[in-house]
Design the sequence.
């Protein structure tokens, strides 16, 4: 069926980079995500896509809530490394970052964050390796003005790599 | 439930801008979309979100196929106007643009296009005002090198407006 897929096309798609977090009981975790999008305006609703292997997937599946911080171009590779290349199953990512607990109980990361939102899942779809969570936005916070970090900026200026569990990862 | 939604947060989310097209029998149509995202790599799969009022929604719903051209920063407001602010129910948008019919029968717009993909819908979710279509990518074409147009660039450099049927539209 698929006869001529050149993965270079996917590099022309544009994304931001976000720290999506959740909680389950006392457990907190979060990870970098490039797919947070607004899907409707009335009601204010977003979608996020998470790899099933990730601990954040487990937390969102259980609690049905998450937060997303929108990070800016001043972000460091150390911070990216913490949320993008380490697992919450090995370390507690929230020991070393500033955050506040939101109305859903999810931790909103404050470092390098322009703003944040919290959302409650209303439906989810199994995409095979990933799940897409559709969620109503129930809280927003604005922290500062700045330039939102894009995936392109990350690759071109921070010389960032794509984590293996990201939707856009292609081993080759 | 929603107690403090500041829509300014949504402006910090990053998007590209794409011409999503489809066909149904002899009818062709297309529109500007800011939400084309890759959702999994294996299989190569994308999601697109379309307002139910739009003719392109009707075509994709019927034919279960679509194409998406990734446009670049050289795009003109006249071209944006054709695909973003006019309805295929009033005019034939394809009378005045260069395109090629792909393997799905969808028209791939060639003007201002860096690349294009074609996809077949595998599932769809009703989001209220919009539908999200999840689709397997079955064809890709690369036309040229360049800088993909982002929603931010459109607003800041082309002084673009948000069409009423877009996910991010907010009348106020």
Sequence:
């Amino acid at each position: 069926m698929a006869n001529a897929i050149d993965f270079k096309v996917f590099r022309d798609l544009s994304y931001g980079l976000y720290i999506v977090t959740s909680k389950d009981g006392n457990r907190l975790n979060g990870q970098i995500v490039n797919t947070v999008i607004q899907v409707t305006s009335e009601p204010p609703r977003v979608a996020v896509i998470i790899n099933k292997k990730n601990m954040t997937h487990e937390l969102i599946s259980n609690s049905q809530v998450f937060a997303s911080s929108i990070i800016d171009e001043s972000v460091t590779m150390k911070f990216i490394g913490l949320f993008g290349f380490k697992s919450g199953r090995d370390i507690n990512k929230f020991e070393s970052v500033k955050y506040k607990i939101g109305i859903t109980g999810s931790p909103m990361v404050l470092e390098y964050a322009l703003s944040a939102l919290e959302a409650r899942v209303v439906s989810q779809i199994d995409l095979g390796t990933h799940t897409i969570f559709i969620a109503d936005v129930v809280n927003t916070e604005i922290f500062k003005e700045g330039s939102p970090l894009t995936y392109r900026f990350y690759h071109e200026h921070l010389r960032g790599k794509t984590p293996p569990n990201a939707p856009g990862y292609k081993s080759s």
